[in-house]
Design brief:
With about 300 residues, the chain is an all-alpha fold. The protein is built from twelve helices and no strands. The chain has one domain: MetI-like fold (Orthogonal Bundle), CATH 1.10.3720.
């Protein structure tokens, strides 16, 4: 008997190489931008906050945050952020509700949202100049009220270079940001909820108090946290408007790191680290509350 030859076994296939889809290449510029202008500066701030001028490790810079002047600057910044966020939420919510649920013409919505998208990013020197030219000591509105109506804003204690002056200036971008964020939440209110409330005998006020506002409350509170972080981290507008007349955190931080003889860059890093912690907590609260509100609005 002759042995029949067994068929030759097929050659082993080379392992397939996993290739990254080309669609991911579009994220590379964004990832590079985040790494260079967000992650790297943040790490430099965190490391620098725990260093001396010679590079040795220390807690002195963080301990310096608890001095009276720096704590006072944090307190002023927090007050301005809370005031501008609360007023921005209230006014922005009323405007968005009037457009979405009120009786305003439908054509008003598109221009309002377009303007809000532009105004929410309008800040810095142009915004400061606009308010100085309008409500400053020789501003258009200030001079008009004093000349034609006999109303002297300075006599009533108003000063654009003060707490309320900076708060009103921040409202220019706080209100539009609130409108942009809360409008989709108002769109998510279902008509069936109002009809069900009305069929059970609820009035309009009861519907808002017992149904609509409890559903919108996480979104409103989350937006308040976002507006707080937005105002607390605003730097260019405050410096251009008030200079050194109002000692808020961004202005004191700038004084520490600009290279003057009396400046301490590492103390400035510690102040920036404190701002990162506060704004980071506010953004975490915003994301968490927004996730809760989206459960109802889907």
């Amino acid at each position: 008997m002759t042995d029949t030859p067994s068929p030759a076994s097929p050659p082993l296939a080379a392992p397939a190489r996993r290739r990254l889809p080309l669609t991911w290449l579009g994220l590379l510029p964004f990832a590079l931008f985040i790494a260079l202008f967000l992650i790297a500066p943040t790490m430099k701030i965190v490391i620098g906050a725990f260093q001396r001028a010679d590079g040795s490790f220390t807690f002195e810079n963080v301990a310096g945050l608890f001095t009276k002047s720096i704590l006072g600057s944090y307190w002023i910044s927090i007050r301005i952020s809370v005031a501008s966020s609360a007023l921005g939420c209230l006014i922005g919510f009323l405007m968005a509700a009037a457009v979405v649920l009120g009786g305003l013409p439908k054509w008003v919505r598109s221009p309002l949202l377009t303007f809000s998208g532009v105004a929410s990013n309008f800040a810095g020197v142009p915004l400061a100049f606009a308010f100085l030219a309008t409500l400053g000591p020789l501003g258009l509105v200030t001079v008009f009220l004093k000349t034609h109506l006999g109303i002297n804003l300075r006599a009533y204690g108003f000063n654009i270079l003060s707490f309320w002056g900076l708060t009103i200036t921040y409202l220019f971008f706080q209100i539009p940001l609130m409108i942009l964020i809360v409008t989709p939440a108002l769109d998510g209110l279902k008509r069936e909820w109002r009809e069900a409330a009305q069929s059970l005998g609820a009035s309009g006020a009861q519907y808002w108090r017992m149904v609509a506002l409890p559903i919108l409350f996480p979104a409103i509170l989350g937006t308040f946290a976002l507006l707080f972080a937005n105002a607390f981290g605003a730097v260019a507008t405050a410096i251009a408007l008030t200079g050194s007349s109002l000692n808020i955190v961004p202005i004191m931080l700038f004084a520490q790191i600009r290279g003057d003889v009396l400046g301490n860059p590492h103390l400035g890093y510690a102040m920036a680290l404190g701002m990162i912690v506060i704004t980071g907590l506010a953004n975490v609260i915003y994301i968490w509350l927004r996730m809760r509100s989206e459960r109802w609005l889907k």
